Amino acid sequence: ELVKIEKPLTIINEQMVPALDSVGKGFESGEIFLPQLLMSAEAAKIAFAVLKDNMADSPLLSKSKSFALEIIKVCNCIKKNKKESVLTNQLIRSGTSIGANIREAFYGHSKADFIAKLQISLKETAETEYWLRLLALSEYITDKEGQSLIDDCLEIKKILISTLNTAKENK
């Protein structure tokens, strides 16, 4: 029912992560025992499966996936037409890592894990922006191509910053 009125990311940040943190602390302190821990893990697994089906609407996931696909296409084109691989290999690694870490964050074991994965994604946006600027300055891509990809990268970066700020406020 909650998934009908809240975004999956909000449910994860405000409901699931605090609940999992609470169960973990209860287990560490001896207030919760292994059977209860296993039951809560199974409930979380089912809840994450339901949320996963609704995550297609997440702008962060969809934008980072689309961005990664564009990065792959541009790098493959540069490799084929201009025979450059050092910079493009770096760009593919950082540009696809953004979305991979965002996706991994959605399956974090705790709020701290969720935040850590998003912070890695944020760092990867900075690195990706650097490689894009370098490719544009060295004229492997046009200024227009470079700026379009940088704009997409910065949009993801802004969403990440906003999501991280929200997650940290709800700690």
Structural descriptors:
171 residues, mainly alpha, 7 helices, 85% helix, elongated
Explain how this protein is built:
This protein has 171 residues and is mainly α. The protein is 85% helix and 0% strand. α2 (8-29) packs antiparallel against α3, α4 (59-82) packs antiparallel against α7 and α5 (86-105) runs antiparallel to α6. The mean pLDDT is 90.
Sum this structure up briefly.
The protein has 171 residues and is mostly helical.
The radius of gyration is 19 Å
Beta-sheet strand percentage? Answer: under 5%
Please tally the helical runs, counting DSSP H or I stretches of 4 or more residues: 7
Arithmetic mean of pLDDT: 90
Which series of helices and strands comes N to C?
Answer: HHHHHHH
Distance between the termini: 24 Å
Number of strands: 0
Work out the helicity level.
Answer: over 70%
Q: By helix and strand content, what is the structural category?
A: mainly alpha
Largest sheet: none
User: Based on CA inertia axes, which overall geometry fits?
Assistant: elongated
Low-pLDDT ranges: none
SSE blueprint:
Blueprint (H helix, E strand, L loop, with lengths): L1 H4 L2 H22 L4 H21 L4 H24 L3 H20 L5 H27 L5 H27 L2
